[in-house]
Amino acid sequence: MPAQHLPVLAEFAGRIDLKADAVVVDATVGAGGHSSIFAQSLTRNGVLLGLDVDTNCLAIAREKLAAASCKVLLVRSNFANLAEVARQNGIEKADLIFADLGVCSAQLADENKGLSFSQNSKLDMRLDDRLESTAADIVNRRDEKGLADLIYGLGQERASRKIARSIVQYRQKKSIDSTAELVNIICQALRCDPNSRRSKIHPATKTFQALRIAVNSELENLEKLLSDAPNLLKTGGKIAVISFHSLEDRIVKTNFRENKAAGVYEIVTKKPITASRDEQKENPRCRSAKLRMAVKV
Ligand SMILES: C[S@@+](CC[C@H](N)C(=O)[O-])C[C@H]1O[C@@H](n2cnc3c(N)ncnc32)[C@H](O)[C@@H]1O
């Protein structure tokens, strides 16, 4: 059974005003949670185009959206290729482009993906299994400075140098193949107990974040999505992006500001929308979620 995925900021998503014949692009359809909320506003003249790189997620979404009244198009693709996918599916302009970045609960729970430090599995981290390089390739091949820069730059981990040194020392004896090996290496470098409750976050959180972002080129893909969005949006069309860490949020914030300065967008959310306390209690994934929305003028 896949872990249940609760859509983040669902209430806000439900308040995005959509006409019955709207064209909605969900760039990260995932388990179909947000898409099924959007689909409730659409009738048979509406279109929902959902993209995801992960075939398991698309299968879950397909089931969830089976009863939708609108036309549903689900495509296995990276959202970096959204312009091309929209064209191939006969979509010229959209009323909404939505992206809920990061990973689904089902992906975190999936042993084959190796995304979680809470369970031991192969150190992989590819959301799209067609990608060539895994997290194991990075930790086993990159030089010490390259690793430290990556862990600092994409994980904002202050102890990046210590962790990089420990990784390089360990792999002189044996390659790093599993998530548990990497967790142990990080904990030894930081001289901490992974089960200790002294810190709010697990000691491996930031390093795992950095590796996942690097393996999946997450920031480059987001930049591409944001740069393609204005051409695909109708005048009055909206773009809404939910991000989960400051690197993503900064990219979205900067892009919206630049487009506002260029007269392309009006920013709807002066400050990002965050989850209420109740929603955070019910769905811990919401804690770091920030939604920003802009409208094409
Ligand atoms: C947080 S989940 C989305 C959950 C979805 N909103 C829901 O309510 O079920 C993020 C999804 O985006 C997908 N994803 C991540 N990066 C992607 C990319 N560059 N292109 C397409 N899909 C991507 C992941 O595979 C994952 O299924």
The strands making up the biggest β-sheet line up spatially as 3-2-1-4-5-7-6
- Oligomerization state: single chain
- The CATH H-level superfamily of the largest domain is Vaccinia Virus protein VP39
The CATH class designation of the largest domain is Alpha Beta
> Could you tell me how far the N terminus lies from the C terminus, measured between alpha carbons in angstroms?
44 Å
For the biggest sheet, the summary is: 7 strands, mixed
Rg is: 20 Å
- Secondary-structure-based class equals alpha/beta
Helix content: 40-55%
CATH architectural grouping of the largest domain: 3-Layer(aba) Sandwich
Q: What sort of overall outline do the alpha carbons produce when their principal axes are compared?
A: elongated
Q: Strand tally, please?
A: 7
Mean pLDDT: 95
What string gives the helices and strands in order? Answer: HEHEHEHEHHHHHHHEHEHE
Number of domains: 2
* CATH level 3 topology of the largest domain: Rossmann fold
Please indicate the percent range of residues in DSSP E strands (runs of 2 or more).
5-15%
Low-confidence stretches: none
